[in-house]
């Protein structure tokens, strides 16, 4: 039994978060959570303290890497508004080539960002890059094994503006039809609108949106096995995730279920159904 209220809440919250983020953006793309936009870059200040190498692994686990800030004073203001420090790791090291300092992407460290007398390789053992709260400028070389907060960075995701009547859900542009058509006619109708049947990256989010607007029970999306019985993929060739299929589906019930739908009272919602049934459908603009 699905919880429609919970689904709606998730959708509203995510739309709110998105709107808030949109409003805060001057230029460029958006930052995926948990990253925050600072200037044109997406940073995440860790909750935990780790040594430099472990910090880098944590950042890579989030799909990014340690920060390579284009504007060190801006990052410094962001970081030391949130933690006292005193040191916070960023993405530079000379541990593989003593005395040669670059950011991990190969960019040079600007001369004006180094604190006075740094890098000093103090005690012969300072090989990792940090910003230090009471240094100005703040960049310093420090002992890699010290556990302290760190800043991760990730690339922005492109802004997507969905042309009407399509609406944006996550990174995608969907339109729930006002008419009910067979699967093949639905696909033709989507193509007339410059789109195709939907290939949702997140079926659960689409499901929450769709069944807040229509009772269903079934709504077509972009998959079929009518040309190759038993072989299920989305129309763009992507696999249908195992966890999205409703239990015991696809069952090709009666030997005549060849088109993909989401079904309001199935959870997970993906089901194979009879292509000739006329029902609402979701179109998506592919970029
Ligand atoms: Ca060193
Ligand atoms: Ca130093
Ligand atoms: Ca079938
Ligand atoms: Ca079925």
TrEMBL record:
SUPFAM superfamilies: C-type lectin-like. InterPro entries: C-type_lectin-like, C-type_lectin-like/link_sf, Ca-Dep_Lectins_ImmuneDev, CTDL_fold. It comes from the Eukaryota. Residues 38-153, 169-284 form the C-type lectin domain. GO terms for molecular function: carbohydrate binding. Keywords: Lectin, Signal. Pfam families: Lectin_C (PF00059). Coiled coil: none annotated. Residues 1-19 form the signal peptide. SMART domains: CLECT (SM00034). This is C-type lectin. It comes from Penaeus penicillatus (Redtail prawn).
